[in-house]
Specification:
224 residues, alpha/beta, Spore Coat Polysaccharide Biosynthesis Protein SpsA, Chain A, seven-stranded mixed β-sheet, two-stranded antiparallel sheet, 11 strands, 29% helix, binds cytidine-5'-triphosphate, binds magnesium ion, EC 2.7.7.60, IspD, IspD/TarI_cytidylyltransf_bact, transferase, 2-C-methyl-D-erythritol 4-phosphate cytidylyltransferase
């Protein structure tokens, strides 16, 4: 089977406060999305990278001039819908049920090819698939509406889920269709089918640029 990457990049980046979709904010001289795509295209095992844009996107061509990879304007109202649109597009372009798809957030622009290599090596022989993740180091607190601690949560078996998340096309499509727009990642949809995806350790640096202050942190990491 082949490996494809699918990059949902159809969000508006509301929490980032950037005023434009955050995937187009320049970090270390290039739009965030360009950094993300460079990491994925540097992985030889990945056949093609499909970028999923919003149908209303009017920035891609200017932000990534001469981009030679696959692009589809099939984004939806939620991340899950954008991914489902991208999976259907991969099928139209010849991908099969048994091919692997690595879904990776455009907003995780610090991705490194070696982490992707590790995920692929772990998942290719696996019956289910898996995801990059990081064991939680901090003590976890639940907070109430007043910003006060309501509980302490045992962190010992807790991981922060990242992307890429790697599953076979047929499985991840069935899982996301069953869960609907609510799924915030592919693994949770696969779990809902009773399967246990593999956790593959990556790095805290594989964080998702989400809040205004995250751009400066990403800039420091990418520039260094
Ligand atoms: N995404 C998408 N389609 C959507 C929503 C999100 O393709 N309808 C993508 C984003 O572009 C991003 C990834 O999914 O690369 C992770 O989502 P998130 O970090 O939440 O990005 P946004 O939804 O754009 O940000 P926010 O939630 O702050 O608006
Ligand atoms: Mg979002």
């Amino acid at each position: 089977p082949r490996c494809f990457a699918l990059v949902p990049a159809a969000g508006i980046g509301e929490r980032s406060g950037a005023g434009i979709p955050k995937q187009y904010v320049e970090i270390a001289g290039r739009p965030m999305l360009a950094h993300t795509l460079a990491a994925l295209t540097a992985v030889p095992r990945i056949e093609q990278v499909l970028v999923v844009l919003s149908p209303a996107d009017d920035r891609f061509e200017q932000a990534l001039p001469g981009h030679a990879g696959w692009v589809a304007r099939v984004g939806g109202a939620s991340r899950a819908e954008s991914v489902l649109g991208g999976l259907a597009e991969l099928r139209r372009r010849g991908a099969l049920d048994e091919d692997w798809v690595l879904v990776h957030d455009a907003a995780r622009c610090l991705l490194r090819p070696e982490w992707v290599d590790a995920l692929i090596a772990a998942c290719l022989p696996d019956a289910v698939g898996g995801l990059l993740a990081q064991p939680i180091a901090d003590t976890l607190k639940a907070g109430d509406a007043d910003g006060r601690v309501s509980a302490t949560i045992d962190r010992r078996d807790k991981w922060a889920a990242q992307t890429p998340q790697m599953f076979r096309l047929g499985l991840v499509e069935r899982a996301l269709q069953a869960m609907g727009a609510a799924a915030t990642d592919e693994a949770s949809a696969v779990e809902a089918l009773g399967l246990a995806p593999q956790l593959v350790r990556a790095s805290m640096a594989n964080f998702k640029v989400t809040w205004p202050e995250d751009f400066a942190l990403a800039e420091r990491l990418l520039a260094g």
